[in-house]
């Protein structure tokens, strides 16, 4: 294998553009390392955009005595509220109590522990509830509990970490597949293939991070041809979107008789997001989709709790993801650990593989990864991400920033100003700067999506397709009809041809 010039050798190469990969790349770049990342499809295109979109301690993990994980996750709620106030915000959860659940005193004790395992600076404590005639729940459900967790725009959390990594000098390559890597004389030689053109290139790095999510085992065994000390149990989680079930902004956590948890979450003003399932999955993670049985299951659990009955005709959309959990040989998918495992193989050149993990604790996972890799880099900097605001998060609050947008750009209207504040924060000023009227934003595609916003997403946020824009970056896929989506697709294809010429 030919030697490469020293100036072409990266410190760290990351495979996988989900939350763990971008989180590690961001942390490493901010510590002064030369970093590159490759993602074969779009950022957050797999597991990281198919979550329940929660930053939470994991109340149900207390049942499995995962106290360290819960404590760390509760601490990270507070950190992420400060780091990303535009895409992370508090959410109150209602836990209805039914006779098949644990005794009320035991639930109160669990919630007390949840309130006090880690310091709370911004979130109110739990409390008991009594339901009256105005409750959307079945009349037989008379009491329950309320506690705090947080909502997150999961895909945007990934993209913001990638953007910050780029600001720190990282090279983020989207649509670039790693087809193999070989270590020789302490250097990784990584072969990449452009998924559009088929063109190949070789990158060189002192250390390799395998954050390929559901494909992590494939990368170890086939990509680098090493034995994996850990296995992955792929667990499918599916969600459905239905018309809004409750009139306020609170979420519901429903515990079924099989002890599985189903969330009913306020979603995009007009909808409720319901999920998730826990089903063993085998096959290509890129092809996962909600099954009829999963949809039936979610509808049944909701109908056992809410007075308004749901049918398949109410399901507006579905999405599914595969959670790559570290295989702890548990027979119950719901009981499998959501904690992360880092496997460092230092033969020839260091390879760090990431198994499992939660979106809530991605930042701590990244710090743990850099701690394991730090002995291989002489001048690596200190941990820094806890106090660093993510791009666009330099605002007082979403509400205050939305009001500022309405004052400064009255043509936006309140609904679009709220969407910009909740998706971009101050980043939206990149495409609103110096505009004084709607026409300056260019063509419209529907639901307030304009050419200026699309061009920004393509230029600054690696968007390439209609799905990239509508389902991961703006969440407007529920708003645009087929004709409007086709117009957007045509525009993106023309834009790509013009810039390729």
TrEMBL record:
> What GO cellular-component annotations does this UniProt entry give?
glycerol-3-phosphate dehydrogenase (FAD) complex
Which key words are in the record? FAD, Flavoprotein, Oxidoreductase
Q: Which GO terms describe its molecular function?
A: glycerol-3-phosphate dehydrogenase (quinone) activity
Q: What InterPro entries does the database record attribute to this sequence?
A: DAO_C, DAO_C_sf, FAD-dep_OxRdtase, FAD/NAD-bd_sf, G3P_DH_FAD-dep
Pfam families listed in its UniProt record = DAO (PF01266), DAO_C (PF16901)
Keyword Flavoprotein among UniProt keywords: yes
Q: Which GO terms describe its biological process?
A: glycerol-3-phosphate catabolic process
Name the reaction it catalyses: a quinone + sn-glycerol 3-phosphate = dihydroxyacetone phosphate + a quinol
- Please report the name of this protein according to its UniProt entry: Glycerol-3-phosphate dehydrogenase
Organism field: Chromohalobacter israelensis (strain ATCC BAA-138 / DSM 3043 / CIP 106854 / NCIMB 13768 / 1H11) (Chromohalobacter salexigens)
């Amino acid at each position: 294998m030919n030697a490469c010039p020293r100036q072409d050798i990266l410190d760290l190469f990351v495979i996988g553009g989900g939350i763990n990969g971008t989180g590690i790349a961001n942390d490493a770049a901010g510590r002064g390392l030369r970093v590159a990342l490759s993602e074969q499809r779009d950022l957050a295109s797999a597991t990281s955009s198919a979550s329940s979109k929660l930053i939470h301690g994991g109340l149900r993990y207390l049942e499995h005595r995962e106290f360290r994980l819960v404590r760390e996750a509760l601490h990270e709620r507070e950190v992420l509220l400060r780091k990303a106030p535009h895409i992370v915000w508090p959410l109150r959860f209602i836990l209805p109590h039914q006779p098949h659940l644990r005794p009320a005193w035991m639930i109160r004790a669990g919630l007390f522990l949840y309130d006090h395992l880690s310091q709370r600076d911004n979130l109110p404590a739990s409390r008991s509830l009594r339901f009256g005639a105005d409750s959307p729940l079945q009349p037989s459900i008379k009491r329950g509990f309320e506690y705090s967790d947080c909502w997150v725009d999961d895909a945007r959390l990934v993209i913001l970490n990638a953007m910050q990594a780029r600001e720190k000098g990282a090279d983020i390559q989207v649509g670039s597949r790693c087809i193999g890597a070989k270590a020789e004389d302490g250097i990784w030689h990584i072969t990449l293939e452009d998924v559009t053109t088929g063109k190949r290139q070789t990158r060189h790095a002192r250390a390799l991070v395998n954050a390929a999510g559901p494909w992590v085992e494939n990368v170890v065994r086939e990509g680098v041809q090493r034995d994996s000390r850990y296995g992955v149990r792929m667990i499918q989680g599916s969600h459905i979107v239905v018309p809004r079930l409750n009139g306020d902004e609170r979420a519901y956590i429903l515990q079924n008789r099989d002890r599985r948890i189903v969330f009913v979450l306020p979603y995009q003003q007009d909808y409720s997001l319901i999920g998730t399932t826990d089903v063993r999955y085998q096959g290509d993670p890129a092809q996962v989709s909600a099954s009829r049985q999963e949809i039936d299951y979610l509808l049944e659990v909701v109908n056992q709790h809410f007075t308004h009955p749901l049918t398949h005709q109410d399901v507006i959309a579905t999405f599914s993801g595969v959670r790559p959990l570290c295989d702890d040989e548990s027979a119950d998918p719901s009981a499998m650990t959501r904690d992360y495992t880092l496997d460092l193989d230092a033969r020839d050149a260091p390879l760090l593989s990431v198994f499992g993990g939660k979106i809530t604790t991605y930042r701590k996972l990244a710090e743990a990864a850099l701690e394991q890799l730090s002995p291989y880099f002489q001048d690596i900097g200190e941990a820094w991400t806890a106090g660093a605001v993510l791009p666009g998060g330099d605002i007082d609050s979403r509400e205050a920033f939305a009001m500022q947008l309405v004052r400064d750009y009255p043509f936006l209207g309140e609904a679009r100003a709220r969407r910009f504040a909740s998706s971009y924060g101050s980043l939206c000023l990149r495409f609103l700067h110096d505009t004084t009227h709607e026409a300056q934003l260019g063509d419209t595609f529907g639901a307030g999506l304009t050419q200026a916003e699309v061009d920004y997403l393509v230029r600054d946020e690696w968007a390439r397709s209609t799905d990239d824009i509508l389902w991961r970056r703006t969440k407007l896929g529920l708003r645009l009809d087929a004709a409007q989506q086709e117009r957007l697709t045509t525009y993106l294809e023309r834009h790509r041809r013009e810039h390729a010429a």
